[in-house]
């Protein structure tokens, strides 16, 4: 069962774990003892502005998309699954609308706390947290994925994800390209382009 998508106007190891968690959130269903709990939305969530810059790419992307991922940090508020014995709290994702502000620049506004901390299972209050924002640029048959982790969103931080220019030029061959976060992984900086994501708290 896919999670509902709601439309709204590091280190390599750490980032890989975040990508895995986001992939799991995109594919997994949130379950209570017998059914999915009704998640309560925050009436006036705190907002952050996000700026995205594509630097030194060999050409434009055909499309850009962004998704915000959220989960519950204290999984003891969720029931134990009967077969696996694992505890898995609620997870949600929200589609984030991107606005193009220049040839290689985009911006967006996204909520940090869109869901209410609540006792969803009768086992104690579940506390929501933002996991990450992912940005995906598509060129022909390839998707280039960048990410800003949740703590950077909360701290008004920034993150650069680097990709091989040759991978862009070979975009007629299907592939999902996650990128890396260390420019030194390339023989020369001239071999790479980047998707840079930065966050700043929205003015009230």
Describe the structure.
- With 204 residues, the protein is mainly beta.
- It has one domain.
- Helices cover 13% and strands 39% of the residues.
- It is built from three helices and eleven strands, in the order βαβββββββαβαββ.
- The chain has a six-stranded mixed sheet. A five-stranded antiparallel sheet has the order 5-6-2-11-9.
- A hairpin with a 2-residue loop joins strand 5 and strand 6.
- It is globular and about 55 Å long.
What is the 3D form?
A: globular
Taken in chain order, the helices and strands follow as EHEEEEEEEHEHEE
**How do the strands of the widest beta sheet line up side by side?**
1-4-3-7-8-10
Gyration radius (Cα, Å) is: 18 Å
Strand content: 35-45%
- Taken together, the total number of domains comes to 1
User: Unreliable stretches, pLDDT < 50, 5 or more residues?
Assistant: 1-9, 24-34
Mean pLDDT: 85
Number of helices: 3
Kindly name the structural category. Answer: mainly beta
- Terminal Cα separation, in Å? 37 Å
Please bin the fraction of helical residues.
10-25%
Largest sheet, described in full? 6 strands, mixed
Number of strands: 11
Keywords: Signal
Protein name: Lipoprotein
Signal peptide: 1-28
Structural features:
signal; 204 residues; six-stranded mixed sheet; disordered N terminus; Lipoprotein; mainly beta
Summarize the structure.
The chain is mainly beta and 204 residues long.
Layout of helices and strands, plus pairs?
Blueprint: E1 5-8, H1 12-27, E2 47-55, E3 63-72, E4 91-96, E5 99-102, E6 105-111, E7 128-139, E8 142-149, H2 150-154, E9 158-164, H3 165-169, E10 175-177, E11 192-201
Parallel strand pairs: 1-4, 8-10
Antiparallel strand pairs: 2-6, 2-11, 3-4, 3-7, 5-6, 7-8, 9-11
